[in-house]
Structures are given as structure tokens and as C-alpha cells.
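Changelog excerpt

This revision adds worked examples to the README so contributors can see how folded entries look when concatenated. The first example is reproduced verbatim below.
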Amino acid sequence: MKHASHTRGVTFIETLIWISVFTIAMLAIVTTIMSFYRTNRYTLEQADAVTSAQRALEETVKTIREGAYSSQGAFPIVSIAANDFVFYADVDEDALIERVHYYISGTNLMRGILNPSGNPPDYTGSETTAVIAEYVRNTEQGLSTFRYYDEIGSEITNYTNWTAVRFVSVNLAVNVNPATLPNQLTLHSSAAIRNLIGH
């Protein structure tokens, strides 16, 4: 007498259980990943905004430090205000000095560059502007972007006294979404205008 060997296959119920377990595991993994990104999205965006603002701050301070007399021989500073600073500096390392304009527009730190043209050089025409930092909340927070100091370190609050400026501090309050924690991060740096030291 022969014994028939029956190989047992996977039953329909076992297949359903396996598919159910696999589906639940995949849903748990996907939900965890989505929760991580939803929870940390703000943190990642804030870190990116702070990094961008830090680069902009370093560039701004470096340019302020390089402030120079214009290609016409005009004083290095054109005008000062809490959120607006216009001065001359060589930003592209050519023979001519450019007029540089840093200012806040909404929540952006902007930089405008005006190249001189003609002979003798003249600063007419419109400046080329670029956003150099986003999510800057200085205006909303009532924080001055620029603070100016004279040669003995006294703060200049009368903005018509721009010829006395020798030292400038720059502050940027960065926050992607003010309604979400963590709170804003305020970056600070400063520079002495080298060509005005001792004058």
C-alpha cells in the first residue's frame, strides 16, 4: 500500500493574515515617516532660513567693512536708517566703486547694487536688486536692522548725522513661521568701515 504524501500549501486564510500584517506594518512605517516630516518640517525650514540669513549677514558685514569713497570721490556713506543703509563699496573687485543698498522689504533682506557709468563715473540709473535673506522679521518685531556708531562708540540715532558713522552693527531676526515654536533666532554682527577709521 502506498502512502500519498500531501504537501500542505498556504491557505486562503493564511494569505489574508499575511497581507493584513504586511499592510499594517507598511501603514505604521509610512505614518511614522509622515509624522516625522510634519513635526520636523518647521525645524528643517527654520534651520535652512537661519543658514541663509547667516550667509547674508556675513556678506553684508564684509561689504560694510569694505566701504570706500565713491568713484566720484564722494563720502562712503550716502544715507542711513533703521532698516535701510546706502553706501559705496567695491563689491566686484573692479576699478570702480559701486553704490550698495541694503534694506528690508517685507520679510526679505534685499541688496541693491548700482554700477557707475560714464566718464567721469556717475551713479544714475536703477540698481540691480536681489533677495539675500528670507523670513527676516525685523519690521514685525520693531527691531532695527542697522545700528550706527561714531568714532568713540556712541550710538547715532539722528540719521541726518550720517557723516559721523564709523561702525555699523547688523541684526536679523529670522523666523519661518512666527505662530510656531521655537521662537525666532536673532543673528548679530558688526563692522568698522575701514576707510573711515581715524577720520
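The second example, added in the same revision:
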Amino acid sequence: MIYTRRSIIHISNMSPSREIVEEIDDGVIFLRKISEDDFKFFFRALNNKETIKYMSIGPLLSFRHSKNLIERYLGYWQKNEQYNYVIEALIDDLLEPIGAVSLWNLNWLHRRGEVGIWIKPLHWEQGFGKRTIELIKLVGFQHLHLHRLEAKITTQNHRSIYLFKTCGFKEECVLEDYLFLRGHYHNAMILGCLKNSEEI
């Protein structure tokens, strides 16, 4: 069973009203709105080379750098431009932060947004990523009333591509030299999922 705690706002006089979800869980994975207290977790997690290998941010150079990043995310949240969540997993009856997921690049006119996710390598291949994507789809489609979610992933990141495909995202195209990471250009695959493409 899924539990949510949310505040309801009306964005840009558009109907229907959108529900801004601050917490949601499926009993194993808990997503909660990022907070200023998460700066140490972000600093440590985003200094792992495997975690940030295909990301456009990181490594974080200091606690101040991490705090600035979180402050920027909270600013986006306040303006309804981007929603960042910390992923917590119930492990041995304790909640442990394991990563983060975001709905970003939101376009309210066209009702679409992008999904970004990272999880610490220690917690890979345990089903946490799939649970997280299913929850963020619920937020995007049912609560924010988006019609389309997409992800742009470097074609070398086979793990993430597989994850999104198992969650109902379909490969649409490949953009050449779309991402510039660690001094090199990378092709990016666009994967998309539509609200009416499956039962949400």
C-alpha cells in the first residue's frame, strides 16, 4: 500500500489542480523532499566515482558546495520548477538514505518532465531503483498530472537504460554528442513513458 503526505497547490491557473507530494512510500522505499540537513549525505555520496560516472554534477568539493546545491534544489522546489527527493530504503528495520531522484525540466504547458536518479553502488541490483521509478511515475502522472516523462541517458550507461526500460520507458532515439561529461562528448538515448501507455 502507498501512503502519501502532500500539499495541494494550483499552478498557473491550469486545471486540474496539482498535488505537490513531499513524501511517498511503498513500504520499502521512502521518498521525501530534500532538506538542508541532507548536505553531508550528498557530499559523501557524490564523491564516489562510480556514483557520478555518468552524472553532470559532482564530485562535490566541500560541505559548502553541497549546501549550495541543496539550496538551489530547494529554490527550484519553491518555484515549482523541479522536485528533488532523497531515496530512503527500509533495511533491517531502519531507514537508510541510499540516493536521490528528481522530476526536473518540467514544462507545465506541455505537461512533461524529466526523471533523474542516482543510488549508491552499495545498493545497486536490489530492486530499489525500480521501486523508486515506479513511485516517481506515480507522483508525475497521478499527482502532477503530467502526460509524459522522459530520461536522457548516455548510451554507455547500460544499467540505467535497463532500469528505465523495465519500468515502462521506451527507447525513442539517440542524440549524437549530446552530453559533455568529464571532458568527453557522449551520445544520449532518450527514453519516454506516456501516462496512457500503461495502467498507473
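Reviewer comment on example two: The beta strands are 3-9, 18-25, 29-33, 83-91, 94-107, 112-119, 148-154, 170-181, 184-194. The chain has five helices and nine strands.
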